[in-house]
Q: What sequence folds into this?
C-alpha cells in the first residue's frame, strides 16, 4: 500500500470518502459514556486504577519484541495523575509519527479559538482591472459541485458566483486574473519530498490538490495546487460571462477592494476532520496558522516553534519535544508519552472548553477514521485514539473508558519496529487491556 509508494508513510489508511467507513454499518456495542469518566460521582465511577495493577497487565504486552524501542504512559484524565509509565521524569522522546497531530490540534485551538474560520477572498485592483484570488490557508476549500451544502467546506464555486456578481455591479466583464499565496513563507515541499500523503504546502488549493476525487488518504496531487485552484476559479468565472486571462501569481495591494469571501467551517470542526482522517494537508495548514497567530514565520520551522511555544504556555511538559512539522510526517519530530497524555488531559480540562475537539475528533475504535478497520471486538467503541505510522514507527495515543467507568489517557510510542502488523497489533492489545481491566 502506501508504505512502499510513500517512502514509508501511511497516515490516512485506505483511500475513502471522508466519513465513510470501509464496511457496512453495524450496531454499536454498549460502552460507558466518556463523560461518565470525566464527571461521574463516587457512586457511579470507581477510583483510578492502581499503578502496580496496571504494570502487571501492560508490562508483558509492551515488552513485545515487535515494539522495538518503546515508551508509554497512562494518566487519569479527571485528576491528571500519572498511573503508569516507562522511563523516568518526562519520559523518552521518540518519533511520534501522526500522533503529532494531537499537539498541532491543541496548539491551534489554544492560539485561535474553536470558532476561528479560514477565509479565502477575491479582491479588485482598480488601477490594473485585476481580480486577485487570495489564499487564506484553507485546504478544505472545494471546487466540487456536491460540496456546496450549507455548513460544509467553503466552496470555490460560491466564491466565483459572488465575485461575478460583484464585478457585474461594477460593470466589469473582462479582467486580469491573478492569485496571491504570500500568506505563507518558505518552501512548499515537505522535507519528505513529493509524496501522495500531502500536497505542496500553499495557502491556496482546492480539494487538497487531489487528482482522483478522493477526500482522504494518500492520493496523487497536482504539482502546483495554487495555480490549479486559480485555473479552476477562472473557468468558473467564465461560466458567469466574465472573461479572464490565464492566471498568474501576484500580490494584492492595499488599494484593492474586497469583492467576495468564503469561509471554512469553525476550527473545532477542522480539528476533528484532521484527527479523524489523519489529514496531513490540514495539519500543515493549522500549524502555519498557529505560527501566524503567535507572530512566528509561517514556514515549517516557524510552525514547529509556534506549536512548542504554545504548549509550553499551556504549562505542558515540552522537555525533549522537537516539532518539525504539523502532520508528523517528518521523522525528525520528537515527542514524549508524557506530553501526549498531558495534551489529552488538557483537552479534557473543564477550564479549557476551547480544546475539547482535540478529544472529540479522535477516531473511534472499530467505527471511524483510521481506527475503522481495527478493534473488531473487545474495545470497539470504547477506545478513541490517534494512530501514527511510518516505516519503523508505530504509535497510538488517546483515551479509553475502563470497565469501571474511569476515563484514562494513554500514549504508546514504538520506534525501530521491524514488523508493522505485529507492532500495531501489540499496541491495540495494550489499549484493549486498559478498556477491559479494572486494574485495582
A:
Amino acid at each position: 500500500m502506501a508504505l512502499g509508494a510513500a517512502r514509508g508513510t501511511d497516515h490516512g489508511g485506505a483511500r475513502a470518502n471522508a466519513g465513510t467507513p470501509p464496511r457496512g454499518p453495524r450496531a454499536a456495542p454498549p460502552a460507558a459514556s466518556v463523560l461518565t469518566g470525566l464527571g461521574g460521582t463516587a457512586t457511579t465511577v470507581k477510583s483510578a486504577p492502581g499503578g502496580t495493577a496496571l504494570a502487571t497487565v501492560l508490562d508483558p504486552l509492551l515488552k513485545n519484541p515487535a515494539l522495538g524501542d518503546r515508551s508509554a504512559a497512562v494518566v487519569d484524565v479527571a485528576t491528571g495523575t500519572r498511573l503508569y509509565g516507562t522511563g523516568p521524569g518526562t519520559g523518552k522522546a521518540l518519533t511520534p509519527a501522526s500522533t503529532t497531530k494531537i499537539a498541532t490540534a491543541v496548539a491551534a485551538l489554544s492560539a485561535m479559538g474553536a470558532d476561528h474560520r479560514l477565509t479565502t477572498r477575491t479582491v479588485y485592483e482598480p488601477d490594473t482591472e485585476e481580480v486577485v484570488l487570495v489564499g487564506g490557508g484553507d485546504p478544505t476549500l472545494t471546487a466540487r459541485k456536491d460540496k456546496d451544502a450549507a455548513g460544509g467546506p467553503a466552496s470555490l464555486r460560491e466564491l466565483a458566483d459572488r465575485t461575478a456578481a460583484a464585478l457585474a455591479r461594477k460593470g466589469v466583464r473582462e479582467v486580469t486574473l491573478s492569485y496571491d499565496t504570500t500568506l505563507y513563507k518558505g518552501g512548499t515541499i515537505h522535507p519528505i519530498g513529493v509524496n501522495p500523503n500531502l500536497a505542496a504546502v500553499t495557502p491556496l488549493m482546492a480539494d487538497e490538490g487531489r487528482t482522483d476525487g478522493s477526500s482522504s488518504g494518500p492520493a496523487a496531487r497536482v504539482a502546483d495546487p495554487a495555480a490549479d485552484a486559480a485555473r479552476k476559479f477562472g473557468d468558473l468565472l467564465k461560466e458567469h460571462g466574465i472573461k479572464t486571462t490565464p492566471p498568474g501569481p501576484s500580490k494584492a495591494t492595499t488599494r484593492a477592494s474586497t469583492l467576495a469571501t468564503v469561509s471554512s467551517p469553525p476550527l473545532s470542526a477542522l480539528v476533528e476532520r484532521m484527527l479523524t482522517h489523519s489529514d496531513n494537508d490540514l495539519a500543515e495548514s493549522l500549524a502555519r496558522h498557529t505560527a501566524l497567530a503567535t507572530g512566528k514565520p509561517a514556514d515549517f520551522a516557524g510552525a514547529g516553534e509556534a506549536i512548542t511555544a504554545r504548549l509550553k504556555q499551556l504549562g505542558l511538559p515540552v522537555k525533549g519535544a522537537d516539532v518539525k512539522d504539523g502532520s508528523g510526517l517528518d521523522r525528525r519530530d520528537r515527542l514524549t508519552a508524557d506530553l501526549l497524555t498531558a495534551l489529552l488531559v488538557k483537552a479534557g480540562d473543564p477550564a479549557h472548553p476551547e480544546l475539547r475537539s482535540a478529544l472529540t475528533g479522535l477516531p473511534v475504535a472499530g467505527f471511524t477514521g483510521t481506527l475503522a478497520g481495527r478493534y473488531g471486538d473487545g474495545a470497539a467503541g470504547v477506545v478513541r485514539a490517534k494512530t501514527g505510522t511510518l516505516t519503523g514507527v508505530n504509535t497510538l495515543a488517546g483515551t479509553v473508558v475502563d470497565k469501571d467507568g474511569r476515563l484514562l489517557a494513554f500514549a504508546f510510542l514504538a520506534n525501530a519496529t521491524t514488523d508493522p502488523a505485529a507492532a500495531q497489533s501489540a499496541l491495540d492489545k495494550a489499549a484493549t487491556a486498559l478498556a477491559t481491566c479494572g486494574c485495582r
In short: DSSP finds twelve helices and 13 strands in the chain. Confidence is low (pLDDT under 50) at residues 1-43. The longest strand covers residues 393-401.
